[in-house]
Write a structure and sequence with these properties.
Blueprint (H helix, E strand, L loop, with lengths): L1 H10 L4 H18 L1 H14 L5 H27 L2 H7 E4 L1 H9 L3 E5 L6 H9 L4 E5 L5 H11 L5 E5 L4 H8 L6 E3 L10 E6 L2 E6 L1 H9 L1 E11 L2 E6 L11 H18 L23
Parallel strand pairs: 1-9, 2-5, 2-8, 3-4, 3-5
Antiparallel strand pairs: 6-7, 8-9
């Protein structure tokens, strides 16, 4: 692992265009070699887009593998490049939506789905303001330590372990009205989840966005990270109106519906290799 980290440290010196060209080549190789992940991605696309042909699904997953390899090679930039380079590479649009809420004394939950540029865009936002985030420990100790250091390299991130309570998150949020960067769009199992549609298939979806916003009396602000050519855009949307509501299921479906629209804009940049439909209602067959 130390060799891999050293390689990423060196690769960060390359222009992003060269880094992305290398990632495209590696992505094509990985598409052919990573049979199980390719299978998961194709199943996800079939469940979400039943009218999409197999050939179209394969082309999309092939492009997605290239986008995922870009994410991997970009970690060198995320962890070790200068703040000046990050500012040049990542454009933030709509920052005023968060700033206005904080100035008004409001707490903020950033709905931040799993798009492939989420790491570099989150770090760029961290240059503008402190952030609260939840951290899942990695199995490899060296990699785990590097992820932790990388996400707090500007010393203004409040990193809460996934094993800690919701109270820890809310306490960190209320310090300076620090936005909570929340990624609730994966399958975390049946706990705290309900089944609502994600595109054409019901998915176990955690209700945390609505629950945390309600308990913390916070506004929900969607933020979408995108790769645009050899640069990046973090698009911060206006805060959701009338959210949360009294209907937890409606709020959760509304979250998924918003996410679906953003995915359709750049489908190859969403995380398709995660087993999004792993948890099934009682009696239903497994997909994977």
């Amino acid at each position: 692992m130390k060799f891999v980290l050293a390689l990423l440290w060196l690769l960060r010196l390359l222009p992003v265009s060269v880094l992305h060209a290398l990632a495209w080549c590696l992505g094509q190789m990985l598409y052919l070699l990573a049979r199980e992940r390719r299978r998961v991605g194709l199943i996800n696309l079939r469940l979400c887009f039943p009218d999409m042909s197999l050939a179209e699904r394969r082309r999309l997953i092939r492009r997605h593998f290239a986008e995922m390899m870009k994410l991997v090679l970009e970690y060198g930039i995320v962890w070790w490049s200068s703040p000046a380079r990050l500012r040049r590479l990542v454009e933030i649009r709509g920052l005023e939506h968060i700033q206005r809420l904080r100035e008004q004394g409001e707490d903020v939950v950033l709905f931040y789905p799993h798009f492939v540029s989420f790491e570099i865009c989150a770090l760029r936002l961290n240059l503008e303001m402190p952030l609260v985030s939840v951290y899942s420990h990695q199995k490899n100790e060296t990699l785990d330590a590097q992820f932790y250091r990388g996400r707090n390299r500007f010393d203004n991130a409040y990193i809460v372990s996934r094993q800690e309570s919701l109270r820890s998150i809310i306490k960190a949020m209320r310090k300076e009205h620090t936005p909570f960067l929340y990624l609730p769009d994966q399958d975390f199992g049946p706990r705290d989840a309900i089944f609502v549609n994600f595109f054409a298939t019901e998915a176990a979806t955690i209700t945390g966005l609505s629950r945390i916003a309600s308990i913390a009396k916070a506004r929900v602000v969607p933020a979408i990270a995108r790769r645009v050519g050899n640069r990046f855009v973090l698009e911060i949307h206006p805060p959701l109106e009338d959210f949360p509501s009294a209907d937890l299921a409606a709020d959760t479906r509304r979250m998924n519906a918003f996410l679906e629209q953003r995915i359709l804009e750049t489908p190859e940049q969403y995380f398709w290799l995660h087993k999004r439909f792993k948890t099934r209602p009682p009696g239903q067959a497994r997909f994977y």
